[in-house]
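User: Please fill in residues for this 310-position structure.
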């Protein structure tokens, strides 16, 4: 996949446009349509996206809750088989363009011959315009504007906002169904309070690599842990450890099964399989330790089940 804001010698292409956070099943369904349309026309296929969320340009204090970092998104887009990813810097000038002016940029600068968009997709300064307006501008400019097929398995549309809501509610399993892969969080192992060692479940404390990437709801999760080129099962706790009077300090701690190496300052990737319970306060540390033992048994069984095998 070619990546960049290419200004000359662009091959004629069929494209679609969007932020593509998460590169979920709906995005992939759309990109498959673009690839098929491009192949049928003998053209290249392209995705037009933005390295920074457009709303951050318009609102400097806006902090997006991301499903994928910019680099993760590019890696996933490359996996779709698209020929080119055009990265547009969403500047105040770009935001001020009308839909027609923006489409002129697509035609003249990027050699877009056909544009596949959802019927409710909006771009350009005047958001009251819609598909029929874009189709009319396309006829004037020489761009075929084509309606995207809807992706709604079981009648339920898949969107990035839906996946965010699911993760923030702790429903990692349903989020994975929408994404087409388990949601993952990468980071570095940092020092902790070592309480897990005292309870018989030593943990690695994760500091996420990207401050804007979503951390799912508090609770105990079954996860897969990738570190140093190998994958292990793990029991993850996200929360404030109320039994231990941890205050407002929210931690991300994973106990890695059948693992005893020192990975302080090493990188980890957590893939969320399922939340097994919410975080709660126990009457004593001993009661917490007993619950952790039950959690570990539950999670080991979950990770060994056929439907959770990668």
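Assistant: Residues filled in for all 310 positions:
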């Amino acid at each position: 996949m070619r990546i960049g804001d290419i200004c000359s010698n662009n091959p004629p292409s069929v494209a679609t446009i969007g932020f593509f956070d998460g590169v979920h099943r709906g995005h992939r369904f759309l990109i498959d349509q673009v690839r098929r349309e491009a192949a049928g026309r003998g053209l290249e296929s392209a995705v037009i996206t933005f390295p920074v969320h457009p709303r951050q340009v318009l609102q400097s204090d806006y902090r997006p809750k991301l499903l994928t970092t910019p680099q993760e998104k590019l890696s996933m887009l490359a996996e779709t088989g698209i020929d080119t990813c055009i990265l547009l810097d969403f500047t105040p000038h770009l935001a001020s363009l009308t839909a027609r002016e923006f489409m002129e940029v697509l035609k003249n600068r990027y050699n877009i011959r056909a544009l596949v968009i959802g019927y409710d997709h909006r771009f350009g300064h005047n958001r009251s315009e819609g598909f029929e307006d874009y189709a009319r501008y396309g006829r004037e400019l020489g761009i075929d504007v084509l309606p995207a097929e809807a992706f709604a398995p079981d009648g339920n549309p898949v969107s990035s906002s839906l996946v965010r809501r699911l993760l923030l509610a702790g429903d990692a399993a349903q989020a994975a169904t929408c994404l087409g892969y388990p949601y993952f969080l990468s980071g570095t192992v940092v020092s902790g309070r070592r309480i897990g060692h005292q309870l018989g479940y030593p943990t690695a404390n994760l500091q996420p690599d990207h401050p804007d990437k979503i951390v799912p709801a508090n609770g105990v999760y079954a996860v897969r842990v990738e570190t140093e080129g190998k994958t292990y099962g793990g029991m993850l706790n996200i929360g404030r450890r109320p039994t231990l009077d941890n205050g407002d300090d929210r931690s991300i701690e994973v106990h890695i099964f059948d693992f005893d190496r020192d990975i302080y300052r090493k990188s980890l990737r957590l893939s969320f399989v399922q939340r097994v319970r919410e975080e709660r306060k126990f009457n004593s540390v001993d009661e917490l330790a007993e619950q952790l033992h039950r959690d570990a048994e539950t999670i080991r069984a979950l990770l060994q089940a056929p439907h959770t095998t990668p």
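For context: Residues 285-304 form the longest helix (20 residues).
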